[in-house]
Amino acid sequence: MRSKYNWLLSILLVFIVQVGYAQEKTLSGVVQEGGLTLPGVSVVIEGTQFGTQTDLDGKYSLKVKQGQTLVFSFIGMQDVKYKVGAATTYNVDMAADGEQLEEVVVLAYGQSKAKNEITGNVVAVKGDVIGKTPVASVDQALQGRVAGLQIASTSGSPGAVQNIRIRGRNSMSATNEPLYVVDGMPIITDNMSGAVDSNGNATGTSLSALAGINSDDIETMTVLKDAAATAAYGARGGNGVILITTKKGKRGEPAYTFKSTVGFQNFARKGPQFLSGEQKKELWLEANINTYGEEYNLDRNNVWDWYVGPDGYGNDALARWVNNGSIENDWRKAVKNKDALMTSISFGVNGGDEKGTYYASLGHDKYEGVVIGSDFRKITGSFNMTRNLNEKLDITIGANVSNIAQNGIMEGGAYFSNPNLTGMFMSPWTAIYNEDGTPNLNTSAGLHNTLYTSANNTTLNDITRVISSNALGYKILDNLKFESNIGLDYTLANFRLYYNPIHGDGRAYGGSASQDEKRIFNYVWQNSLDYRFYLGESHRFNVKAVTEYQKNKFNSLEGRGEVLPPGMTGLGTAAANYTTYSSYYDWAQFSYFGMLNYDYQNRYLLDVTFRREGSSRFSEDQRWGSFYAVGGAWNISSETFMQNAMAINLLRLRGSYGTTGNSSINPNMYMQLLNAGAYNNESAIVAYQYGGPLGWEKQEKFDLGLEFGLFDNRLSGSFTYFQGKSKDLLYSRPLSMTSGYTSQWTNIGDMKNTGIEAELNVDVVRSKDFNWSVGANVGTVKNVVTKMPIVDGEPLQVIGGYNATMEGKAYGTWYLKEYAGVDAQTGNALWYKADGTTTANYNEAERRFQDTSALPKVTGGFNTHVDYKGFYLDALFSFALGYSVYDGWASYTNTVNSRSLYTYNGTTDLMDRWQNPGDITDVPKVSTGGNASYTSPSTRWLYSGDHIRLRQLTFGYNLNKQATRFVGVDAVNFSVSAMNPLTWVKDSRLKWDPEVDATGYVEMATPPLKSVVFTLNVKF
Amino acid sequence: MRKVLRILTIVGFLGLGTMTFTSCSLDSEQSNYIDGNEPITSTEKLIASLNGAYARMTSSTYYGRDIIVFSEARAPYAYSSDRTGRFGNVSAFALQTTHSYAKDTWLQIYRTITNANKVIEAALETSEKNNYYKGQAYVIRALAHYDLVRIYGEQYVNGEGLAALGVPYKTLSHSADESIKRMTVRENMEAIYADLEQGIAYLKAGKEAGLEGNSLVKAKINYAAALGLQSRIALFFSQFDESQLELVVAAAEQAIEARGNVVVLPRAGYIDGYKTDGIMTNSLFELAQSGTDNQFTNSLQYIYSIGSNGGYGDVQWLPATVEAVFDPADGNDIRAKVITVDGVNDTKALRNTGKYVVRSSNIRMLRIEEVMLNYVEATLEGAGNGDMGQALDYMNQIVGSRVVTIKDGVETPKQFTSIKKKDLQDLRMKEMMFEGFGFEDAMRWRKGISNPKITDNDDLGESIEFGNPLLAFPIPEAEINVSKIQQNQAYK
C-alpha cells in the first residue's frame, strides 16, 4: 500500500517538475537510509510545488536557486531540510520517524529545539525510559536521572504523592513542588485523596495527581531548571517545571504496541526489628526490679512470683500471655502483605498519513499494597489526533481519561487503625487471632486490630479525571502562525469512609460513614502568534506572543453520619448525627508574554522572555507581577576556527539570568476572614484569618553552564553553576498568638540557593554487537536564609521543637540538644550543657545547631548500560548526601519505661540497655516509669540520611529480526527489572528507610518499596 | 492585502479576548467566609460573634478537654499514666517550651479573647440588649485571662504571689503587631476584676430589664453565672491577698440569690445527672455539646474512659483503691461510684466512669455546689462578711445530698455540726473531682503533687511542692519567637 502510494506521488511530482522552469544551477545527490539507497523520496523546494523524486538508485537532481530550502520527505521517515548553498551536490541520510538524528528537546509553550539551540538549563528524559520504570506515578521515574532533582516519598502506598525538589527549597511557606505541564497545559497537582483534615493535611494515604497518567503514553518528560527555561511560566516556574509530552501518532501504517508487566513488591528496607514477647518480658521484669527491687527485695529469680502476686500486677496482660503458653505474636509481620502483586497491561496503536496522525492507548494497572488494606487500580485511556484541515488550518485533539480506585489506609500519623502503627506499637503479648482463627478484637492499649479494621472498614478514593488538550493552528503566512490551545482538566473525586461499629474507630459511634464529593474544573486558554524571519543571511529570529488565561473552580460536598445498620456501609444508611460540609472557591490567573529567540549562524544565541501575570490569589493592588529572563549561548564548536578540531563535536557555553516567581498558596490568603461556626445550635462567627497586602514571591536565578561532546560524542556532558535568590518570600509569618491568630501571609524574607551540577556520559564501547556506556549526574545545593522579618529590631528566629530557621542557616536546620550517651555508673541518659560538660537533667542541656536539614546537599545518580546481541543490562544508582532524618516516634518505640516495655512495643535496640555499673551503651536503664525526657528531642534520634541505592536493575532481551519476522511481529522485548534491590545507608543506627518525605521525619507510613518486575513488550 | 486583513482579524480577536479576561476575572470567590474588616453593625452579628467566643471555648484545647485535664493530671488524686501518650508530660511536670499542650491552649484562649474583643468593640447603639451580650463578652474575657494566669502565671513559683509574672492582657482585636508584655499577676487580677465588674453590671441591667426571662439560659453566661465565676476567681486570688476573701463571699451570696431554680443535686440523681446530655439541674453555666457538635476522640470522655465506647483512658485515679479516699466508715458516699474499673484489660487501674461519660456531655462550667463551697472556704479563711452558720448550712446541703449512713435499711444523711478546714477540703475534693479543680485547689491549700510520673524521675524528687518553678506551664516557644515576652523561670 505504502509503495503504491509513493509511486503515484512520484508520477505526479515528475509531471510537476516537467512543467517547472529551469534556473541557475543543478543540485544532485544520493538519498540513503542506514547505508541503503532510498528510491521514491520526494524532494521539494519549500514554499513551492516544484520538486522531484529519487530514482531507483536513490539519486536525484534538481534545478535550484541559492538560498532556497529543499525538503526531503518519505513516509515513515523524518523530513530533512537543506538550505541550498554554493555546493552542487548534497547527499542525504534519512532516518525513520522516532529515531531522531538529533535529539530534539521539548520546551515551554510548544517550542522544541535541538540541544545546541537551547540557552536554558533543561534535562529531557525519554518516554521509553519512563515506560520501563515500573512505578505507580510517572514522576517517580525521574529519580536519579536528573541532576539537581530530589524525590522524597511520602508513602510507599501505591499512588501516593512524591515530594519533588528541583535545586532545593526555594520558598519558605508556599509550595516547593515544581509546576507540571501536560501537553502545554499547567495542571493542578494537589493531593487528590479525600483523606485530609479541615486544614488540608493528609490523614491517610495520599493520591498523586499524576497517578492517572499511563507511563506508556509519555513521549518525553523535560525538566526545566533555570530562568531562561522557566520564565515563560512566569510566576509558577520558580520551583522548576516538569513538562510531560504525551505520545502522538506517527505517519505510516498502524503500529501496535502491547506491554504486559507483572511484579512483586516488598519493603525496600526491613526497618527496625521489634521486641519479641520473650524479649519484652525480660525487659519489663527488669524494669520492675529496677523500680521495686529495693521495696520488695526483688531479683531475677523471684520477680515473677512477685509479679503475678498481690503486690505485683496480678493477672495482667503479661501474666495472661504466659499462662496461655507464651505464644509469640509478630504484628509487624501480620500487617505486611508479602510479595504484593502488581500487574500492568497497556495496548496502543498509532499511525497516520500526510493529512494527520492518531494515537490511542488503553492501560490497566493494579497494585496491591505491601501493607494490608491498601491497593490501587487505574484504567487509563488516551487519544490523540492531529489533522490538517486544509493547507492553512490544522487541529489537534487529545484526551487522557483515567479512573483510579485507591483503597488507602490511615497513615502518616499515629492513627490507631494505621496498620503501620499496629506493626510497630502492638504488644507481642496480644494475640493476633482468636483460637477459632478470627481476628482478636480484645486488643491492648486501645489499639485496633487492623487485620479486622482493614478488612471491615472502607477508605476508598474513586477518582475520574479527564485532561484534554486541544489546539487549532492557523498558518497566516508561511512564517507566521497563530495557535489557540484549550486545555480542560476535570476531576471528579469521590471519597468514601466507613468505620464498622464492632471494632476500631467506629465503635464509639455505632459505626460511622462519610462521603466526600469533589469537583475540580480547571481550564487554560492560550493564544499565540509565532513569527519566524531572517534579517539578512545569518540573523534568524523567532518571535512569539502569547496570552494565557487559567481558571480553577473547586466544589466540594461532604456528609457524615453515625449509627449504621449491620452490614451496611453507605452514608445513606446512617441513622443519627448527620453533619454536612460544603465549600466552593476559585482562582484565576491571566498573563501575556513575549519570547524572542535570536541566533546568528547558530553560533550566538539569545533568548529573551518577558511575562506579565496577574493572579487572583493576591491583594488587588499587588495582583500583577512582571517577570523576565535573558538567556544566551555561544556554540564554540560551530565557529570556523573550530572546524579543524575534529575531536570536538559540541562545545558550548550557555548562561541565563532572570526572574520567576511563586504563587502557589491557597486562595484568599490576603483577606481578613471570618469563618462560620456553631454553638448550641445557633450560628456563630469566629475570627479566622489575619490578612494583609500580599503579592508575588520573586526569584532571581542565575545559571552558567558548559556543554561538550567529544570523540563523535562518545564522551559528553555538562557542568553548571547556579544561584537562585528568592525575594519577598511568600511567608506565613508567625504572629504573636495573643492576637488570636498564628500567622499572616506576607512577602518577607530572602533565601539563597547555590550549587553546581554535572553530567557525564561515556560510550565506552560502540560496535554493532556490543555496546557499553556509563553515565553519571550530580547536583549540589546550598540553602541559606539571608533575610528574616525584623521583630523588635532583630531578625526573627523561628525555633521549633526539632529545628530552627534563622538568618545565615539553611531553612529548618536541625536544632537539638546533643546526646552524650549513658552514664556508665548510674545508667541515666546524659546530654551536653553549654559549657561542654554533661548533665543528666534534660532541661539543663543546651540546644545546638546541627549542620544539616531535611534536604540533601548532594544528590545524583549513575547508570550503566551494556548490550550484546540483543541482550542488555541497565543499572541505575541514586544517592543523596548531607541530610538528616529524625525519628519522632522514638518516644513510643524506644522508651525505657512502661510505654514501650509494657503498653506498646519497643525496638530490639532496647535490648542494649544499661544494666550494671560500668556498662557502656547508648540505651539508658529501664524502669517502670522511666524518664520521659530520654526520648525528648535530641541528637539521639537524629540520623544521617546519606545513602546510595541501586534504584533499578534491568536485564532484558530484544528478539532479533529473523525471529520477529518468523513470529510475524516487528519487535519483541522481554525484561526483568528489580527496583530498589539494594540500599546502603551510612548511619548504621538508622534502621528505617532513609528516604522520608521532605519534612525529614520518619513517618508512620508505608516505606519505599523494592520490587521484581517482569515485562513483555511486543510491537506489531 | 488579504494577508494584512487576516493578521488584523487575528490580532483583533486576541486583543478582544485579552480585554474580556482582564476586565473582570481576577476576582476570586469563595463560599465559607466573610470579610473580617467589616465592623459589627447589627445585634444579630453581635450575637453570632458572641456565639463564636463560646464555640472557641468548647474546643478540646480549651474547656472541651485540655484545661480541665491540666488540673486533673496534676491533682493529688489523679494523673495521666501516659497510656496513649496523652498528658503524661503534664503529670510528669516535664513540659517543654515547644510541646503542643503549652502552645495549643495558649492560642485557643487568646482566640476566644479575640472573639470576645470583637463583640466588646462593636460600635452599636447602646441598648440593654446589646449591652447584655457585651456583658457576656466581658465575663468571657475575664474568665479567659484568669485561665491563662492559673496555667501560665508564676504566682506559685517561690511564693511570689501577686508580684509574679502573669500574662499579656488583650483588649484589642484588630492589631496583630501590638507590642505586648507580661503583666504582673496583680495587674492581671485588677484587669480581670474590672472586666468582671463591667460584665456583671451589664448583665444585671439586662436581667432587670427582663432579658433573662423566667428561666436562665444556662448554655450562656447569665447574671448568676457571672457572679459565681467572680467568686471562683476571687477565691483564687485570695490565697495571695486575704483582702479578696470578702469579694468571694459577696459574689457567692449574690450568685446564690440570683440562681433561680438551681439547687444542689440530690443524692438519688447524682450518678444519672452526670449522664444526661442536657443541662444539669445544679448548673448555672454549661458549655453546650451535642451529638454532632462535640470533641469526638478529643473529648473528656475519651481521655477518662477506655470502656465500651472506646477511649484513651490516660487520666486515671491515683490512690490504690476507692476506699483509700472514700472511707466506708464515713458513710456511704454516692460520689465513690464515679470511680470504677473500666474495661477488661486494665483491671488494676481505676478510672472516672461517672463524669463525662459520653462525648456529647455538656461541659459543666459552674455548679451551684462550687459557689457554696467558695462561700464556705472564704468564710472559713476569715472573710469579714462571711456567716459561719450560713456556711455550715451550705456544707450540710451538699454532704447531706451525697453521704448517708445506712442502718437497718434506713438512710440517714450525713451532717456536720461544725466546719473544719479538713472537712471542707475533703468535701470539695470529692465533690469537684474530674471537673477541673484538682490542681488549683491543691495549690491553694498548699499541698504538694506526687504521682508515679514524678517519682520515676530522678531529677524531681518525691513530689512537686508549692513554690516549685515547674508549677507554671512554659510560655510557648512559638510565642516567644515573635513577641519576645519573658519565659517562665523553669524553662529559661
TrEMBL record, chain A:
| PROSITE patterns named in the record | TONB_DEPENDENT_REC_3
Q: Where in the cell is it found?
A: Cell outer membrane
- Print the keywords alphabetically: Cell outer membrane, Membrane, Transmembrane, Transmembrane beta strand, Transport
Asked if the Swiss-Prot or TrEMBL record annotates the protein with the keyword Transmembrane, the reply is yes
Q: Which residues form the TonB-dependent receptor plug domain?
A: 115-241
How this chain sits in the membrane, per its record, is: Multi-pass membrane protein
Please provide, in alphabetical order, the Gene Ontology terms of the cellular component aspect for this entry.
cell outer membrane
Give one Pfam hit by family name: CarbopepD_reg_2
Asked whether the UniProt record includes Ligase among its keywords, one would answer no
Q: Which InterPro entries match?
A: Beta-barrel_TonB_sf (IPR036942), CarboxyPept-like_regulatory (IPR008969), Plug_dom (IPR012910), Plug_dom_sf (IPR037066), TonB-dep_OMP_SusC/RagA (IPR023996), TonB-dep_OMP_SusC/RagA_CS (IPR023997), TonB-dep_rcpt-like (IPR039426)
Name the protein family: Belongs to the TonB-dependent receptor family.
NCBIfam families recorded: OMP_RagA_SusC, SusC_RagA_signa
User: What name goes with this protein?
Assistant: SusC/RagA family TonB-linked outer membrane protein
Organism source for this protein? Myroides pelagicus
UniProtKB/TrEMBL annotation, chain B:
One GO term describing the cellular component: cell outer membrane
Q: Where is the SusD-like N-terminal domain?
A: 31-235
Q: Which UniProt keywords apply?
A: Cell outer membrane, Membrane, Signal
* Annotated localization: Cell outer membrane
Q: Which Pfam families match?
A: SusD-like_3 (PF14322), SusD_RagB (PF07980)
| Entry's family note | Belongs to the SusD family.
Q: What is this protein called?
A: RagB/SusD family nutrient uptake outer membrane protein
Name its species: Myroides pelagicus
